[in-house]
Amino acid sequence: MGVIGRCISALLPDFKTEAVSLTGLRSENQDNYLIIAQGSDGQPKARWLRDGSVAEETRASWPARWIRLAVLDGMGGHTHGREIAESAVDALRRLPPCRSAFKQRRAVVDLHRNLLRQFGTGQANSPGTTLVWAEIDRLRRCCHVLNLGDSRAWLGMDDRWHPLTYDHTLAEFGYRDGRIDTSAYAAESKRSDQRLAQALGHGAWGVILDAEGHESFGFAPEIRLDATRDLSRSLQGHADLRTIDLPRGAALILATDGLWSETRCDLPPPTDLMVPGAIGEVARTAIDAGGTDNTTLVIGYFDPEPAS
């Protein structure tokens, strides 16, 4: 980062980040994460997992205005889950900032196609990975959020966690497309055996409509990402791409399903997690409570307003 970049960075609000990824009882960690943010030396740094261990590199050309956070979960029971999640992270850490949700979607579609060419087998256990990705603008204090799969994101404000994503299940897309009503959707959402309907680098099952609006319940290599404009007004809260304000004192959490899939692990109040090491305690609590899956959390937040 040059002199001008350092001056710009000094004028932008400080943004804190932290990540934890635990293997748990699995034989390997198929989760991954990515943080691109200013390091303690003032230089932009990328941090992620390589072969299950934390890796870091300086990204000298990365603009100080932007922060990138992402979590990924290689599909359990499929081949090369760790490898495809790591390959996705490798592509994301080389990608320049996406300054709009539209550019974010286009980048993910391109990434999906590249991963499909690299890893796709055409079989049911072909590799795939989830992705929740937040592109944070320090200048405007806003965030573009994209979801693909069943990892999740929450915004912590006013002592509450507000969900930003909805798992990509057949029930979710059935509800969006009007094939099931609100009561059926609520009942299906409570089931613990819901099948993941699509994944990055894998494709989709039963969520792609043809030109006439008919759904095929077979496998398709495409993926579906709904923006707010693609959905009716009553369903826009279910969009897979959105831009939100991220004010001082609000926290953003991204997590893989090890946090909730096998045991209930409620998130503490947002202010309790804006303390170094707190998300590590949450991950360990999920595993100690009986969770057997890999568990990964990333948190990011602007420093609260100084007391007057």
UniProtKB/TrEMBL annotation:
The keyword Cell cycle does not apply. One of its GO terms (molecular function) is protein serine/threonine phosphatase activity. Its EC number is 3.1.3.16. It comes from the Bacteria. It is an enzyme of class 3 (hydrolase). Keywords: Hydrolase. It holds the Pfam family PP2C_2. Residues 16-302 form the PPM-type phosphatase domain. SUPFAM superfamilies: PP2C-like (SSF81606). This is PP2C family protein-serine/threonine phosphatase. It comes from Thiorhodococcus fuscus.
